[in-house]
């Protein structure tokens, strides 16, 4: 039999109908729903007298709009309306909902894995582009628009053209102080913000195998920032052990059977891909984005680029515009850039291990006086687990605010907004103009780098930062 | 959805690459629970200054592009968030067709679902159109989806590719869920086999 990669295997298992000249009709195993991209979809069902075909395969949470200070005080009436609307829709259509006070509530891409809803081999969709996160488990997971949300609600299927496959081989090991976040930022910096368009990525190689599930999620999360709708990692023992005992996975004997099935999904030796890209993990340094898309990213040891470094006039303009928006000088060392805010959170970096690592960097130190720093755990359960370990105290002692869970400052749909012209070291995934607030300047970094910057008041190489302390 | 066969319209140039959906429709406008009314917020932070006054140098504010229905932009248009509010805003503002060298996948899908034709042209062709739109007053294009051709009345004439399925959807203005429900037996069969 011809060797197959995991993308081909999952695809073949989910084709409901195939016909010349049409995309395939693909079955969807899990549909995650949140308050921002669903109201118009439910409205569409209502107008056409349609039902949710499989409420049992649909799971809803509230995350984008939720307040992170006082859980139940939603100041913006339109935010409140959106949250209430999801509650009403779930009730009307029989969909399970983790509402803002539910113990399972959190950012959709944090709770899916946490609850064991996310499993290898599943097709998973959500009206959110960072659905690629779930790919860490060897699931085919991708973001969809609201019309597609409605389509999945009504039919539990989607018309999908078969994607091309792309293998990103990460050779070697990551150095000390270099994280999964730095790796994915370095990949996007190297190959650009659209190398993955039309493709599903499989991340392979030594560095990936050695990662924990939470690190793998960070990598897969940002696949969309490279243009790929989905990015995944073949399941292995690490995947199985993470899932064991979680709320929605099979238990006992049935779990072992599932585990065997999951591991068999891993790409076969010698499987072919439409494209292969390679990167050497040992060469990756801690990264900082300097511009207005995630590809505008440099190692912390480097200087901000100059428009003169490029030939293409459209790129020159882009760099110029980005420098202007970000208020940076071409050629200045990135470590000389002072920050006003630090945000540790988002579906990229708000899991327990992210908070643990950031806490290690700041333990016993003080946030620089000019910096406002907040930590927003990815879910209730992350928050509880962190508090059990006393991490909340470590952060608070250092001068961080310790918040309730949610998307928060990742996109600032609630009150957590960066004022115009201010600069933020953020562990989120997008540094687009205005993402964290109109005129806000976002620099994407790892939790460790964000923590170090909070203390120093400017970007620092976290490898030296910790070394200094040891000395 | 309205069928789209032949469309003639005024061209608005937007010579920028990697235009992301956070720019197309900033997040503060995502809170509505309706599909309509997003046009007023299209490119909000580029169109308006901090006091809410229109920026005169932004093409969508220029009187010569008033009423344009064809938007021409740089590569990787629509990258970022999956928000369908982006095509809703584009459509609500009056655009029916977009021409760019490349698009983000989710955005392109979202366009088809809303009856917007996102044409992929070459970098060179896009540059030509951008120049013409910037220099010729009232520059308009005719798009023939049936024939897959874009032309003007000065001899510019290009062919574009589009997959058969989105083409059929756009030409007929179909409701996709209605189409899919014709395959309900197959869906049931699949569900029984995988129960
Ligand atoms: S944390 Fe940010 S990127 Fe993730 S789902 Fe929420 S808004 Fe989207």
**General shape of chain A:** globular
Largest interface: A-B, 61 and 51 residues
How would you write the strand order of the largest sheet of chain B? 4-3-2-1-5-6-7
Order of helices and strands of chain B: EHHEHEHEHEEEHHH
How many strands in all of chain B?
A: 7
**Biggest sheet statistics of chain B:** 7 strands, mixed
Q: Note the gap between the termini of chain B.
A: 35 Å
Features:
heterodimer, A: 471 residues, alpha/beta, Aconitase, domain 3, 2 domains, five-stranded parallel β-sheet, 33% helix, globular, B: 195 residues, Aconitase, domain 4, 16% strand, binds iron/sulfur cluster
Notes on the protein architecture:
The complex is a heterodimer of chains A (about 475) and B (about 200). Chain A has two domains: about 5-275, Aconitase, domain 3 (2-Layer Sandwich); about 290-470, Aconitase, domain 3 (2-Layer Sandwich), CATH 3.30.499.10. Chain A is built from 16 helices and 19 strands. Chain A has helices at about 5-15, 40-45, 75-95, 110-115, 145-155, 180-190, 205-210, 215-220, 235-245, 255-265, 315-325, 350-360, 380-390, 390-400, 445-455, 460-470; strands at about 15, 25, 30-35, 60, 95-100, 125, 140-145, 155-160, 165-170, 200-205, 230, 275-280, 285-290, 295-300, 340-345, 370-375, 400, 425, 440-445. In chain A, the strands form five sheets. A five-stranded parallel beta sheet of chain A has the order 5-4-3-6-7, with helices on one face. A five-stranded parallel beta sheet of chain A has the order 17-16-15-18-19. In chain A, helix 12 (about 350-360) crosses helix 14. Chain B is an alpha/beta fold and about 200 residues long. Chain B has one domain (about 5-195): Aconitase, domain 4, CATH 3.20.19.10. Chain B is about 35% helix and about 15% strand. Chain B has eight helices and seven strands, in the order E-H-H-E-H-E-H-E-H-E-E-E-H-H-H. A seven-stranded mixed beta sheet of chain B has the order 4-3-2-1-5-6-7. In chain B, strand 6 and strand 7 (about 155-160) form a beta hairpin. Chain B is globular, with a radius of gyration of 18 Å. The chains are: A alpha/beta (about 475), B alpha/beta (about 200). The structure holds iron/sulfur cluster. Iron/sulfur cluster (SF4) binds near residues 107 and 128 of chain A.
């Amino acid at each position: 039999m011809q060797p197959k990669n995991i993308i081909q295997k999952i695809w073949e298992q989910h084709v409901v109908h195939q016909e010349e000249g049409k995309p395939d009709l693909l079955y969807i195993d899990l549909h995650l729903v949140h308050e921002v991209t669903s109201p118009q979809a439910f409205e569409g069902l209502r107008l056409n007298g349609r039902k949710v075909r499989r409420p049992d395969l649909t799971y809803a949470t509230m995350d984008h709009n939720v307040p992170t200070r006082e859980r139940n005080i939603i100041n913006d009436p339109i935010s409140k309306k959106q949250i209430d609307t999801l509650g009403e829709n779930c009730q009307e259509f029989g969909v399970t909902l983790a509402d803002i006070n539910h113990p399972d509530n959190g950012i959709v891409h944090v709770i899916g894995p946490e609850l064991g809803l996310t499993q290898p081999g599943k097709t998973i969709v959500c009206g959110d582009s960072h659905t690629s996160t779930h790919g860490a488990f060897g699931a085919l997971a991708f973001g969809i628009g609201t019309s597609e949300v409605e389509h999945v609600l009504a039919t539990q299927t989607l018309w999908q053209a078969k994607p091309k496959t792309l293998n990103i081989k990460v050779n070697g090991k990551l150095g000390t102080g270099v994280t999964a976040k730095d790796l994915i930022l370095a990949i996007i910096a190297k190959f650009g913000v659209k190398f993955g368009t039309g493709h599903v990525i499989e991340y392979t190689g030594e560095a990936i195998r050695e990662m924990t599930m939470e690190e793998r999620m960070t990598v897969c999360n940002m696949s969309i920032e490279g243009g790929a709708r989905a990015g995944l990692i073949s399941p292995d023992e690490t995947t199985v052990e993470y899932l064991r005992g979680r709320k929605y996975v099979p238990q006992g004997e049935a779990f072992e059977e599932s585990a065997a099935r999951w591991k068999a999904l891993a790409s076969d030796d010698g499987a072919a891909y439409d494209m292969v890209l390679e990167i050497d993990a040992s060469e990756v340094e801690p990264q900082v984005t300097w511009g207005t898309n995630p590809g505008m990213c440099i190692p912390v040891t480097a200087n901000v680029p100059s428009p003169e470094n490029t030939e293409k006039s459209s790129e020159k303009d882009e760099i110029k515009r980005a420098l202007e928006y970000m208020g940076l000088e071409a050629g200045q060392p990135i470590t000389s850039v002072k920050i006003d805010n630090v945000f540790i959170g988002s579906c990229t970096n708000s899991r327990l291990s992210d908070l643990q690592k950031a806490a290690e960097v700041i333990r016993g130190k003080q946030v620089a006086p000019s910096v406002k720093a907040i930590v927003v755990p990815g879910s209730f359960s992350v928050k509880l687990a962190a508090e059990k370990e006393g991490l909340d105290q470590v952060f608070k002692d250092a001068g961080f605010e310790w918040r309730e869970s949610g998307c928060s400052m990742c996109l600032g749909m609630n009150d957590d907004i960066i004022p115009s012209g201010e600069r933020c070291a953020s562990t989120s995934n997008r540094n687009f103009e205005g993402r964290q607030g109109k005129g806000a300047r976002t620099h994407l970094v790892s939790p460790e780098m964000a923590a170090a910057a909070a203390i120093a008041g400017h970007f620092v190489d976290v490898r030296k930062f910790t070394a200094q302390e040891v000395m | 959805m309205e069928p789209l066969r032949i469309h003639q319209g005024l061209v608005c140039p937007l010579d920028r690459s990697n235009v992301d959906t956070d720019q197309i429709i900033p997040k503060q406008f995502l809170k509505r629970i309706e599909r309509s009314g997003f046009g007023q917020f299209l490119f909000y932070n580029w169109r308006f200054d901090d006091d809410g006054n229109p920026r005169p140098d932004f093409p969508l504010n220029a009187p010569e592009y008033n009423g344009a229905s064809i938007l021409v932009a740089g590569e990787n248009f629509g990258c970022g968030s999956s928000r369908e509010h982006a095509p809703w805003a584009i459509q609500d503002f009056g655009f029916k067709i977009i021409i760019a060298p490349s698009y983000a996948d989710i955005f392109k899908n979202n366009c088809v679902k809303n009856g917007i034709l996102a044409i992929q042209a070459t970098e060179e062709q896009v540059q030509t159109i951008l120049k013409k739109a910037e220099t010729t007053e009232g520059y308009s294009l005719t798009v023939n989806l049936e024939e897959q051709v874009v032309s003007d009345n000065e001899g510019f004439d290009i062919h574009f590719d589009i997959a058969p399925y989105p083409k059929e959807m756009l030409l007929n203005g179909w409701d996709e869920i209605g189409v899919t429900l014709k395959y309900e037996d197959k869906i049931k069969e699949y569900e029984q086999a995988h129960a």
